[in-house]
Amino acid sequence: MIVILKHDPNREQLESLINWLQEKGIAIHTSIGEAHTILGLVGDTSKLDIDLIAALDIVEDVKRVQEPYKNANRKFHPEDTVIPVGNTQIGGGTLTIMAGPCSVESEEQVVAIAKAVKASGATMLRGGAFKPRTSPYAFQGLGAKGLEYLKIARQETGLPIVTELMDLSQLPLFKDVDVIQIGARNMQNFDLLKAVGHQDRPVMIKRGMSATYEEWLMSAEYVMSGGNENVILCERGIRTFEHYTRNTLDLAAIPVLRRLTHLPVIIDPSHATGKNWLVEPMAMGAVATGADGLQIEVHNDPAHALCDGPQSLKPEDFDPLAKKLLALHKAVKSLEG
Ligand code: PEP
Ligand code: MN
């Protein structure tokens, strides 16, 4: 971090700033120029409050040269993180395909979909039991019952389950869930992030609708700083001026995150586009760009789905797509050598 001081700073205030930084274990390199004095801060500056320093009378400007996230940072953890989940893993060269309905609607529905997607090559079952809906009048999910049905589907198929946790009070019900999903709307629910950081289930954090990469990685940092290193990031489209699609899929997130972090990256082309016919091209693009996996909504009767029917694939359309994705992934890996 670099602190640029105002011209002729008050000596007492400067000494007190330097003492305060040194007490925090930061070494200071001072460079005195004609107009300004610059302090180069060396050490772990991730815990320093940049705004607090910038607000001091003697400070002209503060610039970070190091990212504020440490646990999630590739610089301090060059190897890709691989997360074991049930009989499979996320990251480490495998293509994870999470598929299933937006919402669990009944035991029969979720078991039938689970069987179909497994037969097509899916490696995990997705399905919401607690649903974040824009309207309070819309279907809110089956709650605890929905989780029970997901577990039955897991038992019937062997597919590990990924499902959304919306509120702290629900956490005791998620002990046995394979991957806890934190939805886009909760990406900056810091109490929720802290709580899932203090338990041992892997956590998939979906990108907030208007979140920057750094904000998203700081959410991962919340979970990891609590002791849970098993974090997965899921790009699900961001809000832009374009309304033709539900959101705008940011495929650049894959190579950018690959550079910034060691955590696995999943792409959700369903929520990113809102249209079933856009799921295939975006999913193929994601695999070609190096994603570690996909999360795809599949429904046995999209026209009557209680949530997100227009973006859901029928099992018979998911089947050829899953096969194409696995073939493309193999080809991409062979090109990487
Ligand atoms: C979901 O996956 O069901 C969901 C609500 O996604 P998002 O949080 O990305 O909107
Ligand atoms: Mn959905």
Secondary structure category: alpha/beta
Order of strands, main sheet, comes to: 7-8-9-10-11-12-13-14
What are the distinct ligands in this entry?
A: phosphoenolpyruvate, manganese (II) ion
Strand-residue proportion: 15-25%
Number of helices: 10
Largest sheet: 8 strands, parallel, barrel
Poorly predicted regions? none
**Considering DSSP H and I runs of 4 or more, what fraction of the residues is helical?**
25-40%
N-to-C SSE string, H for helix and E for strand: EHEEHEEEEHEHEEHEHEHEHHEH
Compute the number of strand runs.
14
Mean pLDDT, to the nearest integer, reads: 96
Radius of gyration: 23 Å
Any overview of this molecule?
- Helix 3 runs parallel beside helix 4 (144-157), helix 5 (190-197) crosses helix 6 (213-225) and helix 9 (276-288) runs parallel beside helix 10.
- It contains ten helices and 14 strands.
- The protein is α/β, with parallel strands linked by helices and 337 residues long.
- The strands form three sheets. The protein has an eight-stranded parallel beta barrel, surrounded by six helices. A four-stranded antiparallel sheet has the order 2-3-1-4.
- The mean pLDDT is 96.
- The chain binds phosphoenolpyruvate and manganese (II) ion.
- Phosphoenolpyruvate is lined by residues 102, 128, 132, 164, 183-185, 206, 236, 271.
